[in-house]
Specification:
Helix 2 runs antiparallel to helix 3 and helix 3 (about 105-120) crosses helix 4. This protein is an alpha+beta fold and about 160 residues long. The protein has a single domain (about 5-155), classed as Molybdopterin biosynthesis MoaE subunit (Aldehyde Oxidoreductase, domain 3, Alpha-Beta Complex), CATH 3.90.1170. It is globular. A hairpin with a 2-residue loop joins strand 9 and strand 10 (about 135). It is built from 4 helices and 10 strands; from the N terminus they run E-H-E-E-E-E-H-E-E-E-H-E-E-H. It has helices spanning about 15-20, 60-75, 105-120, 140-160; strands spanning about 5-10, 30-35, 40, 45, 50-55, 75-85, 85-90, 95-100, 125-130, 135. The strands form 3 sheets. Strands 1-6-8-2 form a 4-stranded mixed beta sheet, sandwiched between helices. A 4-stranded antiparallel beta sheet has the order 7-5-9-10, with no helix packed on it. Strands 3-4 form a two-stranded antiparallel ribbon.
Length: about 160
């Protein structure tokens, strides 16, 4: 399986990406798709847009590293991760994660794992645009806690082996 990892300014088409991953395949029994969408508010305040910045090359490598980790943890038959950068308005897609496996448990777990790490470890910075100006969004402790549980799970798995 060769995963797809792309960073792009342009909107993505989740249905087209899913069709591309599954076309002509009979080894896929479960497909999980997650699309993160720009909300119209941040911390309860209306926003005009988000601007996402990243380090080209570094961001792709970090995402690919977590995809490789997901492939080691679960029997995946396909993975697509597309993350947008630049100015994104409310209602627009920000990120697409598609995971495929023979069975649903692996596909669901891998999609959740990848999103937790995209939120906390991928080198992206979010700036929120409001009517009164712009500000950077700080990382959330709840996102870090979600990603940390996978580290604890891996440590328990290694100790059991």
């Amino acid at each position: 399986m060769i995963p797809t990892v792309r960073l792009q300014r342009e909107p993505f088409d989740a249905a087209a990406e899913t069709a591309l991953l599954t076309r002509g395949r009979s080894d896929i029994g479960a497909l999980v798709t997650f699309t993160g969408i720009c909300r119209g508010d941040e911390a309860g305040e209306p926003i005009a847009a988000l601007t996402l910045e990243h380090f080209p090359g570094m961001a792709e490598a970090e995402i690919e590293r977590h995809v490789a980790d997901a492939k080691e943890r679960w029997p995946l038959t396909g993975v697509t991760v597309i993350h947008r950068h630049g100015r994104i308005e409310p209602g627009d897609g920000i990120v697409l994660v598609v995971t495929a496996s023979s069975h649903r448990e692996a596909a669901f777990a891998a999609a959740e794992f990848l999103m937790d790490f995209l939120k906390t470890r991928a080198p992206f910075w979010k700036q929120v645009e409001r009517a009164d100006g712009t500000s950077w969004i700080e990382a959330k402790k709840t996102d870090d806690a979600a990603a940390d549980r996978w580290t604890r799970t891996a440590a328990r798995r290694e100790a059991a082996e």
